[in-house]
Amino acid sequence: MRKVICINNEGLELEFNVGDKYDVDREFDTTYIVTNKLGKRHTVFKTHFALVDESESAI
User: Fold this and answer.
1) In this structure, are strands 3-6 and 21-27 parallel, antiparallel, or unpaired?
2) Structure pTM?
3) How does pLDDT run across 17-27, given as a tens digit for each residue?
4) Does domain 3-51 sit in CATH 2.30.30?
């Protein structure tokens, strides 16, 4: 499953923490639908989240 990392939590501090990873349910042009730690689905702007490339290894 694809994941995104929170890079900006304006107004979302109770639902998301900066630096935490979340599961992506669907991806659209400007938003992701993600599931948070509580199991709730949210529509979030891509500008607040960045796709995590788990295939890259640390250099």
Assistant:
1) antiparallel
2) 0.80
3) 999 999 999 99
4) yes
